[in-house]
Amino acid sequence: MKIKYLLGMRLLFLMVLFFVFSYAHKGLKPPILKDKTSETTSRTLAYQAINQQYVQNIKQIFQKVCFDCHSNKTNYPWYHKLPGLKQFIERDIREGKKHLNLSNDFPFKSHATPQEDLDAIEKVILDNSMPPWRYKILHWNSKLTEAEKKEILKWIHSSLSAILKICAAM
Ligand code: HEC
Description:
Bound molecules: heme C
Number of strands: 2
Number of domains: 1
Helix content: over 70%
Number of helices: 6
Structural class: mainly alpha
Strand order of the largest sheet: 1-2
Radius of gyration: 27 Å
Largest sheet: 2 strands, antiparallel
Distance between the termini: 55 Å
Shape: elongated
Strand content: under 5%
């Protein structure tokens, strides 16, 4: 009698456990998945909006001053063929593209996240370190004008705040 009772209790306990687990499983999993999907969706939408601004206002500036080293569309200068210069130029392009490749628009190809890329671009614009001085010496028109810098920084700031908004909402 006692054994039967104990077995019954155990069975009941197992059933409750099973119910709780399967409910928890069913009840919890979908919302987590849903949040992930909606985060991915809002991220994709935000990146598309950022890219639209980029293509409209920023890309032509970067094409003029950054693409030679940060894209697959390098315009090699005539002195590229000169011995000694060739390896310097090619190293710049190799290194430049490794850090940041602008070929396929935003989000850019790099080792970092899109947000980190924007931070890095902001930094090089603010400290005037890009394009590198050796490039500026040889390309007279390659300096960013103050108006161009302002335009780039404006795009970076609005893009960063759009990305931060998604992070805050999740
Ligand atoms: C002459 C080639 C050359 C040009 C032109 C050039 N870069 Fe670079 N860039 C490099 C190289 C090489 C590196 C990696 C090594 C370094 O930081 O100097 C780099 C690195 C960077 C980085 C990464 C810095 C970091 O801290 O990770 C950013 C961002 C960047 N460049 C942005 C730009 C932008 C924006 C322009 C145009 C306004 C530009 N670059 C023009 C060669 C170039």
